[in-house]
Specification:
394 residues, mainly alpha, Growth Hormone, Chain: A, 2 strands, 77% helix
Length: 394
């Protein structure tokens, strides 16, 4: 990659890291939030899904205008709104305010994610998209390695609001650097204005896009049936020390940071579809492990959770690279916005469903987590089958 492209990848990764951290840090805070705000599993599932439902709805609306503007301006406006939403989370005095703040943050976050991956699709040729996607998606690993452990430590020392202050302080320098990015208007040369109804009709009439969106939704649901309640299960059912959660994410994050870039490279070398199938099938092992463990040593929790983070997050690298290549450039922004909407709504639905399926006992144990793991495995296998119907166009 050229130096300007490397700077752009770094900046997109930094933007994605802070954005993802804002979302994922809430889940390991689950035990503290449920205790401090007297929440049950359904209420906690709602505050998690509120962000994703909002992101899904506004991501859907964003599909109607995302391709009409300079990508740079979109990034600046959306990221500014995200930072404001995070400030509101930090000052939330109660559960109701926090719920509304998460909805506000999600409204900007859903379109922001679509814009980031649209930029990758516009700037990088198909032969480099896997590597670029892997580098940007390594932001999840960085969030796990640095952000989540620091956020959990701040929450332990102060309160659950402290991690959101931390995220705001990280985000402001990234926003300033966004102004150094040159205008990104190459997609406008082949763009022609389309009405919302015509855009919807065009997307729904394209079997490839419909199949790709269905595929994206299925693989997302399979992940988020498990992810939001992973740490409450470790703490409540396995007796894993809450103070060690930061170390859990640190180890898993370091491994994921290394492997996500490696998986991106494999996607370019051996093909996005083949790489996804291999990683997805391997991910079935840790999904079953983390949802069916009983009274095991802490070392096994570390091993299982690390494998889960590496493989479940790793399968999204070839997924995104595949999706950005299945539509022409002039439709990529709207399609990725639709995709972001589908993913956010799917994760919100999965989190909400998991919250209602699970029951928390007086001693903190979660009941029915194993059933969610089995459903996650079935959906992963369905996604493996569906991926054969997706064809790349660019």
């Amino acid at each position: 990659m050229k130096t300007p492209d490397k700077f752009l990848v770094f900046l997109l990764a930094a933007l994605q890291m802070t954005h993802i951290l804002d979302f994922v840090v809430l889940m390991p805070l689950g035990p503290q939030l449920m205790r401090d705000l007297s929440l049950n599993t359904a209420s906690f599932g709602l505050v998690v899904s509120a962000y994703t439902f909002s992101a899904g709805i506004f991501g859907f609306l964003g599909a109607f205008f995302l391709d009409r503007f300079d990508r740079k301006k979109c990034l600046i406006v959306l990221y500014s709104g995200f930072i404001l939403g995070t400030v509101l989370c930090a000052i939330a005095p109660n559960y109701g305010f926090l719920l509304l703040a998460r909805i506000f943050s999600g409204a900007f976050g859903g379109v922001l994610t679509a814009t980031v991956f649209s930029v990758i699709g516009d700037v990088f040729p198909e032969s480099q998209r896997g590597s670029a996607t892997g580098a940007v998606m390594a932001a999840f690993s960085i969030a796990s390695v640095v952000g989540i452990p620091v956020g959990l430590e701040l929450a332990h020392l102060y309160s659950w609001r402290a991690p959101f202050v931390f995220i705001v302080l990280l985000s402001l320098p990234v926003l300033i650097m966004l102004f150094r990015v040159p205008r990104m208007t190459g997609h406008l040369t082949s763009y022609s204005p389309v009405s919302p109804i015509a855009l919807m009709t065009r997307t729904l009439a394209d079997t490839q896009q419909v199949v790709a969106l269905f595929f994206s939704g299925v693989i997302t649901i399979s992940a988020f049936l498990v992810i939001p309640f992973l740490t409450p299960f470790f703490v409540g059912n396995l007796g894993f020390p809450e103070a060690w959660l930061g170390h859990l994410y640190l180890i898993g994050g370091v491994l994921t940071f290394i492997t996500s870039r490696w998986i991106g490279g494999l996607s370019d070398r051996y093909g996005k579809r083949f790489t996804f199938v291999v990683v997805a099938l391997l991910s079935l092992i840790p999904i079953f492990m983390v949802t069916h463990m009983t009274h095991v040593g802490a070392w096994l929790v570390f091993v299982a959770s690390s494998l889960f983070m590496v493989l479940v997050s790793g399968r999204f690298v070839p997924v995104v690279a595949l999706l950005t290549s299945c539509v022409p450039p002039e439709q990529r922004g709207s399609f990725m916005s639709f995709n972001s909407s589908v993913q956010q709504l799917s994760s919100g639905f999965a989190s909400l469903l998991a919250g209602y399926v699970l029951t928390i006992l007086p001693n903190g144990e979660l009941v029915n987590f194993g059933w969610l793991g089995l459903l996650s495995i079935v959906l992963t296998l369905l996604a493996v089958v569906v991926t054969n119907a997706i064809r790349m166009r660019s």
